[in-house]
User: Which sequence fits this backbone?
């Protein structure tokens, strides 16, 4: 009997959801500064090579696993090999940890969308953020809930869980049909405004002026592969889950991977132009060099951008609303995908209905995220984010590639499957990319991260705090993987699965 | 803005947006053979 599985309503629906998952906060606040800090225009060469030799091959790999074995990450991995299930659950564990704090950043963006209407941050956005909005407390001091964070956080979770309860077609697909066009319009208007500001060219000059000598520095190449890897939502169950909802025939996995990969990079480059044009304006307005105001991450979004908004000669409130609404749209589509990957896994393993899985597992994630809305939240979030990305996402991705390419040797089977259902045939480049290039570079990314953490405490925080919440969060993801793998399957007959060969 | 920066920006935009347009165009053209509505063959 052919097993019934939810499906996307159309190819466009799948692509919008896959692109929505890949395009997230990191595209807007991580890529521009990473590029600027790693050789400017010269960085784009290793970045594009990384896209073609790691990003797109990894997307095809995960699409093929999900589509061939027709399940969430744990089910697909279990069907692929008896001992691979733990990899799928480890990825779900990473999803659980990431979604618990990712929602909080979106909640900050929701609050700042409101703050933009009266420029609440005044003349000193940094003091406003740390002392007024976050009222951040010292490490080891919880500091109580911050209502300004808690209320939008609850709203974000209600929306996310509501979307997931609606199912793949009526929930996830429909939400992305709204969020992605909304993101394109809001961010498109913002970029046009940014590049027409006085001083914008100074920012673009700083971003795109190539320092070709940087290409001889291996760390630039490692940064490029790291950026591509973290940006494409590979290595944490999402793409496997999303591809499992594609119909058996006409899935065209390879072309879809090219479309999603290039769409993600296209948006990322657009974000770089918008962000650095605005930074160039701020540098001019404050009569300082671009490198004095250039920043990435939380500092860029919630300190530098509010300062830019305040300095604008006209329509500054609109500019603020557009920027923070873009963050909300980009973040929400990614949060939906991360939580869907966990929900789908629980449904497959325990035979739960979608509503029950959303309520129990999604609800547990939402409750966990409340700790990040306390005074300790921002520090905790920074530490957990750093460690779970470095030693959760990157390590599980590395283990996945090594397991499939070197240990289980299943690339040939997955390549044949991709070719059977795709218009565009894969060449030998795909195998070479996954057997050699990706493990080598991802290994270098992980080693670099490990060396950094072992030589200096992250952000100068107490070692005990980093051990408990940093290494603890990374280990929690692995512990979730082991614990859920040990639980019995509700319906073991689902594991007796023979992949359909499509002529 | 320096010439090198302009050239780099134009090449980068052409490659990534071009790659997106070509792969999307390829999908639409190929899907015409299997569906009355381009892009809705799944």
Assistant:
């Amino acid at each position: 009997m052919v097993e019934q599985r939810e499906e996307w309503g159309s190819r466009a629906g799948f692509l919008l959801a896959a692109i929505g998952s890949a395009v997230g906060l990191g595209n807007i606040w991580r890529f521009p500064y990473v590029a600027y800090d790693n050789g400017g225009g010269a960085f784009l060469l290793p970045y594009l090579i990384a896209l073609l030799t790691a990003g797109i091959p990894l997307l095809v790999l995960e699409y093929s696993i999900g589509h061939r074995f027709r399940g969430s990450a744990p089910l697909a991995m279990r069907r692929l090999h008896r001992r691979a299930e733990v990899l799928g659950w480890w990825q779900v564990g990473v999803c659980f940890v990431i979604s618990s704090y990712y929602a909080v950043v979106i909640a900050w963006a929701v609050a700042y969308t409101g703050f933009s209407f009266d420029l609440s941050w005044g003349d000193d956005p940094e003091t406003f953020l740390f002392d007024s909005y976050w009222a951040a407390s010292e490490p080891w001091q919880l500091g109580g809930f911050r209502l300004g964070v808690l209320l939008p956080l609850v709203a974000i979770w209600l929306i996310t869980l509501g979307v997931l309860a609606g199912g793949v077609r009526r929930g996830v697909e429909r939400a992305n049909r709204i969020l992605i066009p909304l993101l394109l319009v809001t961010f498109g208007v913002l970029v046009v405004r940014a590049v027409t500001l006085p001083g914008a060219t100074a920012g673009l000059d700083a971003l795109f002026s190539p320092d070709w000598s940087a290409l001889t520095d291996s760390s630039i190449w490692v940064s490029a592969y790291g950026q591509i890897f973290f940006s494409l939502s590979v290595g944490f169950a999402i793409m496997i889950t999303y591809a499992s909802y594609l119909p058996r025939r006409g899935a065209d996995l390879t072309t879809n991977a090219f479309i999603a990969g290039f769409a993600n990079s296209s948006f990322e480059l657009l974000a770089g132009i918008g962000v650095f044009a605005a930074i160039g304006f701020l540098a001019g307005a404050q009569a300082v060099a671009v490198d004095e105001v250039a920043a990435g991450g939380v500092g860029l979004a919630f300190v530098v951008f509010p300062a830019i908004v305040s300095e604008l000669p006209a329509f500054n409130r609109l500019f603020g609303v557009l920027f923070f609404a873009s963050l909300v749209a980009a973040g929400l589509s990614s949060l939906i995908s991360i939580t869907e990957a966990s929900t789908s896994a629980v449904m497959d393993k325990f035979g739960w209905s979608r509503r029950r899985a959303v309520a129990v597992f999604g609800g547990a994630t939402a409750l966990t995220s409340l700790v990040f809305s306390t005074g300790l939240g921002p520090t905790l979030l920074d530490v957990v984010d750093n460690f779970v990305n470095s030693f959760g996402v990157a390590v599980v991705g590395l283990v996945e590639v090594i397991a499939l390419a070197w240990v289980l040797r299943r690339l040939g089977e997955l390549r044949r499957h991709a070719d059977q259902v795709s218009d565009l045939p894969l060449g030998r480049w795909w195998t070479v990319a996954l057997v050699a290039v990706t493990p080598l570079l991802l290994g270098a990314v992980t080693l670099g991260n490990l060396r950094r953490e072992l030589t200096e405490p992250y952000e100068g925080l107490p070692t005990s705090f980093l051990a408990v919440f940093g290494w603890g969060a990374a280990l929690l993801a692995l512990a979730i993987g082991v614990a859920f793998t040990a639980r019995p399957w509700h319906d073991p007959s689902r594991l007796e699965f023979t992949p359909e060969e499509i002529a | 803005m320096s010439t090198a920066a302009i050239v780099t920006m134009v090449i980068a935009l052409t490659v990534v947006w071009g790659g997106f347009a070509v792969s999307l165009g390829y999908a639409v053209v190929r899907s015409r053979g299997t569906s009355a509505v381009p892009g809705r063959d799944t």
Remarks:
- Residues 20 and 26 of chain B are 10 Å apart (CA to CA).
